[in-house]
From TrEMBL:
Family: Belongs to the aspartate-semialdehyde dehydrogenase family.
Species the sequence originates in: Extibacter muris
Protein name: aspartate-semialdehyde dehydrogenase
PANTHER family linked to this entry: ASPARTATE-SEMIALDEHYDE DEHYDROGENASE (PTHR46718:SF1)
Active site residues of this protein: C158 (acyl-thioester intermediate), H251 (proton acceptor)
SMART domains on file: Semialdhyde_dh
EC top class, as a word: oxidoreductase
Xref: SUPFAM superfamilies: Glyceraldehyde-3-phosphate dehydrogenase-like, C-terminal domain, NAD(P)-binding Rossmann-fold domains
């Protein structure tokens, strides 16, 4: 790309916002033109506003340190300075819905990490390897919003990324019933051990709203576009328990599954390893070369060894074996703030750019 697209980050000072800043350092297509956060941070430099809250393992990029933080609520001012925005603000659901729509109406595409619009019928919710064709629904959304280039696209919840790719890869065998337990990292709550000491040596058996997302969102990702809306898939039926565990980064899922047509273990592994989508075909900058890796060792995937597979954009699967009640069981692992949050959104934005939905203003 000759001239980079100017990206704005709404909620740039938060955990996910910082991950966007890190991932976009030296990005070949996008540059961070504007950082925006709450009125508390507005007017300060990015370095001052973040202060001691920088949570990434790599240092804050020099290019953003001196940027003056804008107020997320000053929509027209922010929109003027960017070609599109990533959204990772922490506000109420209604406030997020309204502000993301306000940005879209200024003809600014919004690629959101938030859950507010995940069930808006004409907003696509995409894992680019699985359902990039859902972006087609944007034309209907633009009709509703009365825009020519402004729209909202979202990525799904971090918890589903460790098992939904398997359901997509195994589609032809007809996944029918799925029982999942997720073991979720504390960064999914925007926390580190320093600011959540109660999590050291602890397990908390409740994450508000997470089980419903983990049961329902895969069905929307596996659904189809019909008359300008996303229609969710009816199967598989999914039952999920979500547990917070003392891990910094990496959501693990333990999964049991029944199929319409029971495949062999070899067939299942072959489908996982061969699973590719638009990002691989198009050679997008953040696309993992191999989206899903199968690990044959009994003690894998492990968070410390496998969470950064493909720079945190790949999914690791292991321990696939026959079960005594279900057809099979297995373990999945993905990086919750990379593939599950900012990285997944960056890959959506790359897909939208390659498909011509995000352009220079
Ligand atoms: N962490 C994850 O892995 C993850 C995964 C998926 C989705 N999410 C979702 O992504 C969003 C951000 O999560 P996070 O963990 O990054 O949260 P966070 O660390 O608390 O950051 C929140 C960001 O929103 C801004 N903000 C807060 N209140 C605001 C207001 N009233 N008006 C405007 N801006 C406001 C903050 O600005 P100030 O610094 O100025 O306060 C900050 O930039 C949340 O909705 C969360 O549910 C998080």
């Amino acid at each position: 790309m000759e001239k980079k697209l100017r990206a704005g980050i709404l909620g740039a000072t938060g955990m996910v916002g910082q991950r966007f800043i890190s991932l976009l350092e030296n990005h070949p297509w996008f540059e961070v033109a504007t950082v925006a956060a709450s009125p508390r941070s507005a007017g300060k430099t990015y370095e001052e506003a973040v202060g001691g809250r920088w949570k990434m393992a790599t240092p804050m990029p020099e290019a953003v340190k001196g940027l003056v933080v804008a107020n997320v609520n000053e929509v027209d001012k922010v929109a003027e300075s960017v070609d599109f925005v990533f959204s990772a603000v922490d506000m109420t659901k209604d406030e997020i819905k309204a502000i993301e729509e306000a940005y879209a109406r200024t003809e600014t595409p919004v690629v959101s990490n938030n859950s507010a619009h995940r069930w808006t019928p004409d907003v696509p919710m995409v894992v680019p390897e699985i359902n990039s064709e859902h972006f087609e629904v944007i034309e209907a959304q633009k009709g509703r919003l009365g825009t020519t280039r402004g729209f909202i696209a979202v990525k799904p919840n971090c918890s589903i990324q460790s098992y939904t790719p398997c359901l997509a890869a195994w589609k032809e065998f007809g996944p029918r019933e799925v029982v999942v337990t997720t073991y979720q990292a504390i960064s999914g709550a925007g926390k580190t051990f320093k600011d959540w000491p109660e999590m050291v040596e602890n397990i908390i058996p409740y994450i508000g709203g997470e089980e419903e997302k983990s049961e329902q969102e895969p069905l929307r990702v596996l659904g189809r576009v019909e008359q300008g809306e996303i229609v969710k898939a009816e199967l598989p039926k999914i039952s999920c328990q979500c547990v917070r565990v003392p891990v910094l980064n990496g959501h693990t899922a333990a999964v049991f599954i029944n199929f319409e047509k029971k495949p062999t273990k070899e067939q299942l592994i072959e489908k996982l390893e061969g699973f590719r989508g638009f990002p691989q075909e198009a050679g997008l900058p953040s696309a993992p070369k191999q989206f899903v890796k199968y690990l044959p060792d009994d003690n894998r995937p492990q968070v410390t060894l496998d969470v950064d597979y493909e720079n945190g954009m790949g999914v690791s699967i292991g321990r696939l074996r026959e079960d005594t009640i279900y057809d099979y069981k297995f373990i999945g692992l993905s990086h919750n703030t990379v593939r599950g949050a900012a990285g997944g959104a960056v890959l959506c934005a790359e897909t939208l750019t390659a498909k011509g939905f995000i352009t220079h203003k």
